Amino acid sequence: METLELFIDGKFVPAKSGDEREIEYPANGQIHIRAAEAGKEDAKAAIASARKEFDTGNWTKTTYAQRGEILRKVANRLIAERDEIGRMESMDTGKTYAEGKADVDDVASVFNYYADMAYADGGRVVEPSMDGISSKIVHEPVGVCALIMPWNYPLLQASWKVAPALLAGNTIIMKPSELTPSTTHYLTKILIEEGVEPGAVQLLLGSGAEVGPVLTESPDVDMVSFTGGLVTGRSIMASAAGTVKRVALELGGKNPNVIFADADMEAAIDNALTGIFLDSGQVCSAGSRLIVEESIKDEVVNELVKRAANIKMGASFDEGVETGPLISKEHREKVMAYVDRAIEQGAKVLVGGEIPEGELAEGYFYPPTILGECTRDMDCVHDESFGPVLTVETFSGDTDEEKEANALEIANDTYYGLAGAVWTSNAGRAERMARAMRHGTIWINDYHPYVAPAEWGGMKQSGNGRELGPTGLAEYQEIKHIWHNTKPAPAGWFKN
Ligand code: TXE
Question: Cα(121)–Cα(309) distance, rounded to whole angstroms?
Fold first, then answer.
C-alpha cells in the first residue's frame, strides 16, 4: 500500500520518526492508503526551508505575471486530472464521486481566478502634491505562511489559501487534516511540476496537535491561515499572539435559513434540503438552523421530513447515491451526542436520528435528521453539529415589521456569523433582511453557491479575515509605502 510522504526542503521524505498513519475510507472503515506522520522536527525543518527560500531563494524574485502563469498551469492540470483527483477526494472523505469531481472544478476556478488577478492587482500611486516627491504603495508578500486545512473540503480549502498565498510571492507550509492528506499531497506534486520553486512549498501531514504549535509559535512563520473548528481556532490565535503573527481564521457557523410565507415554496424547500444535507451537513455554511414563518411551518417541515427520509446514503462510487458517510467514527459520536443532548433538552426527532443497519453499518453513516420543537434556550440551535442535522424554529408577528424583526432576532442570535439565507418574494424585505443579518455571506432565494471573485468569511466567532476575491489576496500581502524624494534637500528643522 502506498505511503504518502512529506515534502520538505524540495524533496518527498518520510517522517524523521518513521511514523505513519492509516487513512480510512469512511464508507466502510477500510484503510486505503498510508501517510507519513510529521513530528516537531519535521515541522522545524519545513519552517527552516520555507524561511530560507523566502529570505534568499528565487521565488520572491519572480514576478506576479510569472506566478500567475504557474497558477494557470496548475488549474489546467487539475482540470485534466479531475476524475483521478476527485476519486482521491472521495476515498479520503467518503463524499460521493460526483461531489469529489465537482470540488476539483471549483478548485481549478480558484487557481484560474488568482491567475487572472496577477494582472489586476497593482499597487497605487499616492499624490502628495509636493515637488519632487514620488509616493507609492506596493504590495509585498507577508513571508512564510502556515496553511492549516480541515477534512470536509480538503483540496478546496487548500486552494483558497494556496493560490493567493503563492500569487503574492509567499512561501507556504501546508498542513491538511490528518484524515484527508491525499489531494493536498497530489497538489504539492502538481505545484512543483508546474514551476513553483521547490523551497516555496512544504507539506506536513499528520496531527495538528503535534505540529500545529511549532508552526504557530515560531518567529520564522509570519502568518497562519486556518480553517477548522472554533476550539482549535481559539488556541491557534492565542499561540500566534506570542509572535504577533498575522492570523486568518474560518471557524464554521450555525447558519440561519429564514423562510417567509411569501417565498417560492418549491424552491425554498428543495434548497433547505440541499442547504443542510449536502455533504452530510459537514459544510461550514450548512443551513443547519431553519427559521420558518409559523403559518407555513407544517407545510415546509412535513415536506422536508418526507424528502429527508428518501435521501439515498451510500458509498461514493455506487450508482444513485446522493450523500455519503460522516468523516470518522469519532465525528459521528460527536453528532450523536449533539442529538442526544437536543432530545434531553426537549427537541423531538422528526426523521433520522438512528444509525443505519445492514450494508451501511460498516461505514460512518448518519441519516438526514430533523429536530422539531426547538427553542432558543437549547444548545442544538446555537452549537454547530457539523452533521446532517436540521433544527426547526418559527417566527410570527401581527404586522410585516413584526415578522421581520422577530425573524431577524432569531437569525442573529448566534455567536457564529458565517452565512445565512432569506427566502421571500418581497424584494424590499429581502434587502432589509440581508443587510441586517450579521453573517459574512447572505443568499437571497438561494443556498450555498459561491464564486471565486466573491469574498468568503465570517463575522463574530466564525473567524476573521476573508478568503477569495481581492481581499483573499490582500490577506497574504504586506502593504508598503515608498516615499522617494527626487530633489533631496536638508530638512532644516535643527538650526545648529
Ligand atoms: O477540527 P480541527 P476537527 C468544526 C466542526 C467540527 C469541529 C472539530 O464543528 O466538529 O470543527 O473538527 C489541525 N494547532 N469544523 O477536530 O481540530 C488539524 O490537524 C494547529 C469546521 O476535525 O479544527 C486539521 O488540519 N492546527 C470546519 C485542522 O486543524 C491544529 C471544518 C482542523 O482540525 C491544531 C472542520 C493545533 N493545536 C471542522 N489542532 C470549517 N470551518 O469548515 C488541530 N489542528
Answer: 49
Distances (CA, A) of 332 to 178, 353, 386: 17, 11, 10
For 257, the 3-state DSSP assignment is: strand
Catalytic residue among 24, 197, 250, 293: 250
**Separation of CA 23 and ligand 1 centre (Å):** 17
Respond yes or no: is residue 393 known to be catalytic: no
Q: What is the rounded average pLDDT for all residues in the chain? A: 97
Cα dihedral 372, 375, 376, 380 sign = negative
Annotated active-site residue 250? The verdict is: yes
* Whole-number CA gyration radius for the chain: 24
Name the grid cell of 81.
Answer: 486530472
Going by CA atoms, what residue is nearest to atom 4 of ligand 1?
229
What's the whole-number mean pLDDT along residues 11-16?
98
Ligand 1 atom with least separation from CA of 231: 23
Q: Which helix (H) or strand (E) holds 203?
A: strand 201-203
Task: Give the pLDDT band (50/70/90) at residue 52.
Answer: very high
pLDDT at 121 over 80: no
- Separation of alpha carbons 479 and 471, rounded Å: 13
Helix orientation angle between 265-277 and 297-309, rounded to the nearest 10 degrees: 50
Measured by CA distance, the residue closest to atom 18 of ligand 1 is 208
How far is Cα 180 from Cα 90, in angstroms, rounded to an integer?
10
Closest CA to 248 of 228, 223, 218, 214: 223
Residue 148 Cβ contacting ligand 1 at under 6 Å? yes
Can you give the pLDDT at residue 377? 95
This prediction has a pTM of 0.97
Average pLDDT, stretch 394-414? Answer: 98
Question: Exposed (0-12), middle (13-18) or buried (19+): which is 175, by Cβ within 10 Å?
Answer: buried
| Residue 337 Cβ < 6 Å to ligand 1 | no
